[in-house]
Amino acid sequence: MTRESAAQHPVAELLTTRHHPADFTASRAEYTITRLRLLALGLAVLLPLWIPVDYWLLNTADFLVLAGLRLVMAVVAIGMFFYIGGSRRLSVALGGIALLLLMPAALYVAARLMLESSNNLLYGYAFFPVLIAALLAVFPLTLLEGAMFGLPLLLGYGGLELVLAEASLDPQWLGMLWLLALVTLVALMTQLSQLRMLLDLYRRATRDTVTGVFNRRSLVERLQAEFARWEQHERPLGVLMVRLTALDAISREHGAPVANRLMAQLAEVVGRALRPTDLLGRWNDSSLIAVLPETDDDAAQRLALRVREVSQLASVTLPAGQTVRGEPRVVCDKPSARERLEDLLQRLESKLMA
Predict the structure, then answer these.
(1) Local structure of 328: helix, strand or coil
(2) Each residue of 212-258: pLDDT tens digit?
(3) Domain stop point among 206, 241, 269
(4) How far apart are CA 295 and CA 10, in angstroms?
(5) Residue 108 shares a structural domain with residue 184
(6) Residue 279 sits in which domain range?
(7) Is the pTM of this model over 0.85?
(8) Could you tell me if residue 221 is inside a domain?
(9) By three-state DSSP, how is residue 55 classified?
(10) Which end of the chain is least crowded, N or C, by CB within 10 Å?
(11) CA 145, 148, 153, 158 torsion-angle sign
């Protein structure tokens, strides 16, 4: 793929993860899990600290149930702290958020069912729904992910209060529901702001500003990762290099902006010719490299032929009507036994110069 698909879908990238690159999703999951672990550790410490207050305010039966729940939740939080550490899977991050939110939710439901008096309910439990909504603001989630947690919270609170009030629209719980909806909305907006910030930082750190494909540092990281996978598991791997040999002459004659537009056009057409699993990055001023995982030699050569054909389409039309084209050259190869990555890249460079 060439340009980051999320950059072409500025709204869609905030709705779902469909347009998020895999490495960004892994980084976001790691970031989310780091925050989850800190919150889990905080809950593990804070939940038992309220037990003496419950002992002072509640009767023995209610106290034993709620104290037992607090201790169980504290143990679960400690287990989550250790279990999810080091993971970079989004499913683990979302599951951890769900478990984290279920802990105060379970305590609130138990307290609401056991404590009949609204005054008693205020003893450390009435604010739990708002706490749950506020916790959502800590994580960089898409709108769909945020709604997945926010809507059950609102529906669950409203449904519980409606049942306990015997279908009576009590202004007290309706007011709380309104406040809860407002806090949830603010949390959703905060989530989206965090997500937008992370996406912008990701692009600046990994993308070439001219072409929109991976910059050299990010390209080298992915090359090294795929090369290591080829060495360890002997999985097929192809590497393709594309160069505009006349780019320097175009820059001297028409200026650097025209040359940059031509490279961006080249990246665009090459990216469209590649498969979703392929990685495209800028190697130097005039060259692109495509990493072709799980690609044998025959498939790589067919893909190189296709890239060679579409590369001819890269062009820039000047205001005077003149069309500027480069002279693209395309080579493709695969690693040889006991070969270093540097040797493979040097061999591709030599083929381009031949």
Answers:
(1) strand
(2) 899 999 999 989 989 988 888 888 999 999 999 888 888 888 889 99
(3) 206
(4) 32
(5) yes
(6) 216-353
(7) no
(8) yes
(9) helix
(10) C
(11) positive
